[in-house]
Amino acid sequence: xxxxxxxxxxxxxxxxxxxxxxxxxxxxxxxxxxxxxxxxxxxxxxxxxxxxxxxxxxxxxxxxxxxxxxxxxxxxxxxxxxxxxxxxxxxxxxxxxxxxxxxxxxxxxxxxxxxxxxxxxxxxxxxxxxxxxxxxxxxxxxxxxxxxxxxxxxxxxx
Length: 158
Prior knowledge:
The chain is mainly alpha-helical. The protein has one domain. Helix content is about 80%, strand content about 0%. It is built from five helices and no strands. It has helices at about 5-25, 35-70, 80-110, 115-130, 135-155.
């Protein structure tokens, strides 16, 4: 019995997901007007850059406060180990997403397909974060909207 490599299984799963999303978010969904797509492609790297610069001090402060105050959260009424771990896990996912998005910024200015994929992966990580945090609204609305916009502008990245 032949076994496949885990990385090839992961890549094939991502490729299948990408194909399904392409079908539903590009082929079957209403298209964003071409002028708006071009505007989105132009402002996306600037938007990410500005939000990263504005959010970085808050993110670092929140990570520090979470690390300091997490042991005391149970005194405030947090019950069970999951809530404390869930909060920490949410911050870990947020940090990973911020790093991936920061890595994508230079490629977004160049309209590189690799940068588009980094944003796609960051969106998928955000979806996993929403599942772990039981944030159904963020999962359905935020992830779906992000994926819709990403797939609508995909053709502009080469």
